[in-house]
């Protein structure tokens, strides 16, 4: 078993890797090395200590879980069939695990918020916002620019998203889960019932 004192998330399971069209990278994979080297690093897929394989495949929603040892520097490489390790999508070097609650690898921070009553939520461009809802609140979000935003919602709520046009059906009533991506004032979402 791994512990929070010595290990933490290098890639948080709530982090979602997306392409330029805001679609999850489902056929991509991560490679993790010790910083500045080509030596594969020991990383884990769960807190039980299950070792990750060399190519850490992303799930159907473009996410994965990478737990690593604190106080070590890592290099993370994002690859796919068109971008092998010799020409990756991107490389981030000298990354450190901060704690068991944060993500650093993708350059996108995930902020987790507990929403229990009606609230206005402010999004930060390029940041993944995870909202865990209880008591069926109404959540108001206004988008006033053309930046990229991503929201993941867990639980039942009513969503009042303004300042965007929807590509497809607008998502307003969420009973279980939803994911919404916004780019250039256009929102696209998926409801999970």
Written account of the structure:
The protein has no helices and 16 strands. It has 193 residues and is mainly beta. The strands form 4 sheets. It has a 6-stranded mixed sheet with strand order 7-9-11-15-16-13, with no helix packed on it. A 4-stranded antiparallel sheet has the order 3-2-5-6, with no helix packed on it. A 4-stranded mixed sheet has the order 8-10-12-14, with no helix packed on it. Strand 15 (177-183) and strand 16 form a beta hairpin. It is globular, with a radius of gyration of 18 Å. It folds into 2 domains: 1-107, Immunoglobulin-like; 110-192. Helices cover 0% and strands 41% of the residues. It has strands spanning 7-11, 29-34, 56-57, 66-69, 73-79, 90-96, 110-115, 119-120, 128-133, 138-142, 149-154, 157-162, 165-166, 173-174, 177-183, 186-192.
């Amino acid at each position: 078993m791994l512990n929070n004192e010595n290990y933490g998330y290098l890639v948080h399971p709530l982090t979602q890797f997306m392409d330029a069209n805001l679609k999850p990278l489902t056929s991509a994979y991560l490679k993790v090395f010790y910083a500045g080297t080509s030596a594969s690093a020991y990383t884990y897929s769960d807190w039980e200590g299950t070792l990750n394989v060399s190519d850490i495949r992303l799930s159907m929603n473009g996410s994965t879980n990478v737990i690593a040892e604190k106080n070590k520097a890592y290099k993370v490489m994002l690859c796919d069939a068109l971008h092998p390790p010799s020409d990756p999508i991107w490389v981030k070097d000298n990354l450190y695990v901060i704690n068991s609650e944060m993500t650093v690898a993708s350059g996108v921070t995930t902020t987790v918020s507990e929403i229990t009553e009606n609230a206005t939520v402010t999004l930060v461009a390029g940041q993944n916002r995870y909202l865990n809802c209880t008591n069926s609140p109404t959540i108001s979000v206004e988008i006033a620019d053309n930046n990229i935003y991503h929201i993941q919602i867990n639980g039942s709520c009513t969503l009042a998203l303004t300042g965007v046009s929807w590509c497809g059906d607008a998502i307003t009533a969420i009973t279980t889960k939803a994911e919404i991506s916004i780019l250039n004032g256009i929102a696209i979402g998926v409801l999970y019932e």
